[in-house]
Write a structure and sequence with these properties.
about 600 residues; Rossmann fold; 9-stranded mixed sheet; 6-stranded antiparallel sheet; globular; Amp dependent CoA ligase; ligase
Length: about 600
């Protein structure tokens, strides 16, 4: 039986897992994301919504921010200006290349007002990486932060985007050089407010929200180079409502003292907004739940601690490396963290041991995990509200509206306690990988999504992610495709063949390590002794660090091998090499050798 047949089988042997947390709330299919958050009413949204009259999103550095009405004014002004200047409209792609910023949200929703699509990019990207995203999405307008303007300008030139179609998301001048020709969002908002209305916002037909693309967010899927995941407006709205349901937002039967997320809460946004975790959970879901969002431009640990104390933060959304620092950094004791009620951990698994350490540091705080994919518009699971501390090692429980199956190694369907690949059906499913039919067929199978993760679901309905079938590494919660690094490394004169795997790392989760078959020229240097070995390894590592974002660097090191094991069809035996890498790193650890990113 084929993988597709196994996943979509309707035989009597099928065993399915369903949410234990009630039905999926009504999901409107005729509104865009901006209309859902800014303009419409939903019965699951708190009717008492303090941010409507107080600040809705706030810059952590200055304390300046916008109320709901100010957000609406800025969104409409910016939309009007970019329509008037560049005629941005239906299905045009607007790229964002910036760290977190209060106007990030404004830009997203302004584009959505016009029917355009947003594609956020990692601000640490090199020129080549940004060019790849701009070309893949066919972006026609680019919003960039002054700190990365030079990279944006070079990438735009290569991609054919004129310099006058780059808009600064902040007011600072790149490199401190005053250039009055550079446009800023502030200028466009003001310009758009003075102009006659140049656009008529589209009213979606019934069901159109399910196919109308809102975001092209990059993910490596289960294998290969990063792919543009096409996420519809309906999918993002559905996932917001799924999380609201499991968190019992606006549930009148829950006393306020027992509510997880309360209207008037203050939440810190420190995870990046180019990542689905930041966009969906930390921004859209928290605004839906009635929380004020304090936006941090870039993660700095002591700055985060200061913001928690300064703004009396109630809700934190973190990734495992941040938890490691909370547990171990001496600065933690210097700040008042008593306002924190909830800490959610996502993007990568948090071990049971680390959860215990976090609870010891912050004993009054509710700690729970979530799990999901860009391909599911974010969350598949989340820790339920009936436990203050989630089950150790668990990624939470299945959200309302999701159906899950486990496909075991022999092709049969797994039940409680049995391990296999998790496949899910969810109303929050992405549409496809844009312009990549083959990758779409491999992951999206007749409405089901292959996660590429091996899981166990126990009798208490907790989901445990136990292994990764897919080749993708998770470094600090970010996806790294071995194939991308291997293709780059094969261009180096010292490399004849290569296999990249992830190795465990306490702070980063895992880091890339390269097994390299050295070229004849490299072998000559290696024969000269330790200095030659070091020279070759440094050159190979530099080849990656010069071209790739920091979390893709070979922090796990380089190891020389005679050959890379492959199956008869030529496919790398990556799991075998990954096991070899673990043994090697364990041996190095015993000798006191460590690797840091």
């Amino acid at each position: 039986m084929s993988a597709a047949a196994e996943i979509t089988s309707t035989s009597k042997d099928v065993f399915e897992f369903h949410s234990q947390h009630g039905p999926l709330p009504y999901v409107p299919d005729d509104v865009t994301v901006v209309q859902f958050l800014l303009d419409s009413y939903h019965p699951n949204r708190p009717s008492c919504h303090p941010p409507m009259i107080s600040k809705w999103i706030v810059d952590d550095d200055t304390g300046c921010g916008f109320t709901h009405d100010q957000v609406q004014t800025r969104v409409d002004g910016l939309a009007n200006a970019i329509k008037a200047r560049w005629n941005i409209g239906e299905d045009d792609v607007v790229a964002m290349f910036s760290p977190n910023h209060v106007d990030y949200t404004i830009t997203i929703w302004a584009a959505h007002r016009l029917g355009a699509i947003i594609s956020p990019a990692n601000p640490s990207f090199s020129v080549d990486e940004l060019v790849y995203q701009l070309n893949t999405t066919k972006a026609s307008l680019l919003f960039a932060h002054s700190s990365v303007y030079k990279v944006a300008l070079e990438a735009a030139k290569v991609s054919g985007i004129p310099a006058d179609r780059i808009v600064l998301i902040d007011a600072a001048q790149p490199n401190g050089v005053v250039d009055k020709s550079l446009l800023t969002i502030e200028q466009l908002v003001s310009e758009g407010a003075k102009l006659p209305l140049r656009f008529t916002e589209k009213k979606l037909r019934s069901g159109e929200g399910k196919t109308k693309v809102a975001f092209l967010i990059f993910s490596s899927g289960t294998t290969g180079r990063p792919k543009a995941v096409a996420i519809a407006h309906y999918a993002l709205i559905a996932n917001t409502l799924q999380m609201a349901a499991i968190s019992r937002v606006n549930d009148s039967s829950v006393p306020r003292s027992e509510q997880r997320f309360r209207p008037g809460d203050v939440s810190l946004l420190v995870v990046p907004l180019y990542h689905i975790y930041g966009i969906l959970i930390n921004l859209h879901f928290q605004l839906f739940a009635g929380c004020t969002i304090i936006i941090t431009q870039k993660f700095q640990f002591t700055v985060m601690l200061g913001n928690i104390s300064r703004y009396r933060i109630n809700n934190l959304f973190l990734v495992p490396p941040m938890v490691v620092m909370i547990c171990k950094h001496p600065a933690v004791k210097q700040f008042d963290l008593s306002s924190i009620r909830n800490i959610m951990i996502g993007a990568a698994p948090l071990s049971g041991e680390l959860t215990k350490q976090l609870v010891n540091v912050l004993p009054e705080v509710s700690v729970f995990q979530g799990y999901g994919l860009t391909e599911t518009s974010c969350s598949i699971t989340m820790g339920p509200t009936d436990k203050r501390i989630g089950t150790l090692g668990s990624a939470g429980q299945i959200l309302p509206g999701i159906v899950a199956r486990i496909i075991k190694a022999d092709g049969t369907f797994g039940r409680h306690g049995e391990q296999g690949e998790l496949v899910v059906w969810t109303p929050a499913s992405a549409l496809c990988y844009s312009n990549n039919e083959q990758a779409t067929k491999e992951t999206f199978v007749n409405g089901w999504i292959r996660t590429g993760d091996e899981v166990v679901i126990d009798k208490n309905h907790d989901v445990f992610v136990v292994d990764r079938l897919k080749e993708i590494m998770k470094v600090r919660g970010f996806q790294v495709a071995p194939a991308e690094l291997e293709g780059h490394l094969l261009d180096h004169l010292y490399v004849t063949d290569v296999c990249v795997v992830g190795v465990p790392d306490e702070f980063n989760g895992e880091v890339p390590m390269a097994f390299v078959v050295p070229s004849s020229k490299a072998k000559q240097l290696i024969k000269t002794g330790p200095q030659g070995v070091s020279e070759v390894k440094k050159a190979i590592c530099k080849h990656v660090s010069d071209a790739k974002v920091a979390y893709k660097h070979l922090a796990g090191g380089v190891e020389f091998v005679d050959s890379i094991p492959k199956n008869p069809s030529g496919k790398l035996l990556r799991r075998f090499m990954r096991d070899q890498a673990k043994v090697l790193k364990e041996q190095q650890a015993k000798k006191g050798l460590t690797t840091k990113l």
